[in-house]
Amino acid sequence: MNLHHVLGSVERLRILDSPAATASGVARRLIGSGRLAQALRGSWLGHPVHPLLITVPIGSWIASAVFDVVFTDVAAARRLVAVGLVATPPTVLAGWADFPLLNRRQQRVGLVHAVSNFVGVVMFTLSYRAYRRERNEAARRYTMLGLAAISVGGALGGHLSYAQGAGMFRWQPVRAVTHRSPIEHQRAA
């Protein structure tokens, strides 16, 4: 099985066009186009912020599984799940700020990416609740399901960024892409 082909098949799912258009409109209305949108999109940084922010929840949740399963430190695992959950809202906002800027095929992938990650967040929320109630085996199961869901979401996010080029060179001139002036680039093409 070619994983790239599987991921690429999502961008051909035309059935996602209507929900993606709705999501794009909602994101556009909620986030707008002002300073907040520019900050969340990373104009100050020169590239999208969302890929940077995802490292905190993903890293926390992977570490929580390690602390639970390998070190049997349930308290640390619970705290790490909480850190990931606290880091999720700004990560989601940054992703939704980028969503209206995507083309149709990218929005299809972005929508499935978001839904998969939403399932993961629900699983980690249930994991945290189970840890708080000292139902550690249930918490461990929810953590593993959450990791599976965000792995799918992460693979789709990688496809969106690297295979589809979402957000690439949004603020850089052609020179950043080719190390040539825009005129030299047009002549070479």
Distance between the termini: 35 Å
State which percent range the strand residues make up: under 5%
Note poorly predicted spans.
180-187
The protein's oligomeric status is single chain
**Rough outline:** globular
Features:
transmembrane helix; disordered C terminus; mainly alpha; transmembrane; about 190 residues; membrane; single chain
Describe the structure concisely:
This protein has 189 residues and is mainly α. 76% of the residues lie in helices and 0% in strands. The chain has one domain (31-169).
How would you explain this protein's 3D organization?
Helix 5 (55-69) runs antiparallel to helix 8 and helix 7 runs antiparallel to helix 8 (136-163). The protein has one domain (31-169). It contains ten helices and no strands. It has helices spanning 3-10, 17-31, 35-41, 50-53, 55-69, 74-98, 104-132, 136-163, 174-178, 182-188. The protein is mostly helical and 189 residues long.
List the helices and strands and how they pair.
Elements: H1 3-10, H2 17-31, H3 35-41, H4 50-53, H5 55-69, H6 74-98, H7 104-132, H8 136-163, H9 174-178, H10 182-188
Helix pairs in contact: 2-7, 3-6, 5-6, 5-8, 6-7, 7-8
InterPro entries: DUF2231_TM
Organism: Mycolicibacterium chubuense (strain NBB4) (Mycobacterium chubuense)
Transmembrane segments: 52-71, 80-97, 109-130, 142-162
